[in-house]
Amino acid sequence: MQQVLDVSNEVAAELAGVGDGVLNSLRDRLDCTIRLRGNRLTIEGEEPRVVEARAVVDELVELVEGGHDIGPSTVDAVLGALDEAQRTRLLQIAEMCPVHRTLSAKIDIRTALVDAAASA
């Protein structure tokens, strides 16, 4: 399967980066062929890989267009991002954690003076 995207100069420059860092990161992690020629980005490979790569590239494009700098670590961040169901489940687990429950519970501290002569 092959998908071809036309990207802006700004996006192409960020994807190419220093020594094709972002593109190499995409290639390494997504196991597909990715080529950038001018403003044309081509993604080739097995359909599931191409679909995943396209989703990651779309997210990277959105980040660049939003004014963010991207680098090879951004690819890892995008690939590692949790979807809404995963975030909800993680929150449920955190709320059941005994340490979390202890730290978020109401604490009632009472301070009192004790007469030393009376306690002897």
List its traits.
7 helices, 120 residues, 3 strands, three-stranded antiparallel sheet, elongated, Ribosomal Protein S8, Chain: A, domain 1, alpha+beta
Please write the string of helix (H) and strand (E) elements: EHHEEHHHHH
Number of strands: 3
Mean pLDDT: 83
Oligomer: single chain
Supply the CATH class of the domain at 2-80: Alpha Beta
Q: How many H/I helical runs?
A: 7
Give a structural overview.
The chain is α+β, with helices and mostly antiparallel strands. It has a domain at 2-80: Ribosomal Protein S8, Chain: A, domain 1, CATH 3.30.1370. It is 58% helix and 12% strand. The protein has helices at 9-16, 21-30, 47-65, 72-80, 84-96, 98-104, 116-119; strands spanning 2-6, 33-37, 40-44. A three-stranded antiparallel beta sheet has the order 1-3-2. Helix 1 (9-16) crosses helix 3 and helix 2 (21-30) runs parallel beside helix 4. The N and C termini lie far apart (87 Å). The mean pLDDT is 83.
SSE order and pairing:
Elements: E1 2-6, H1 9-16, H2 21-30, E2 33-37, E3 40-44, H3 47-65, H4 72-80, H5 84-96, H6 98-104, H7 116-119
Helix pairs in contact: 1-3, 2-4
Task: Sum this structure up briefly.
With 120 residues, the chain is α+β, with helices and mostly antiparallel strands.
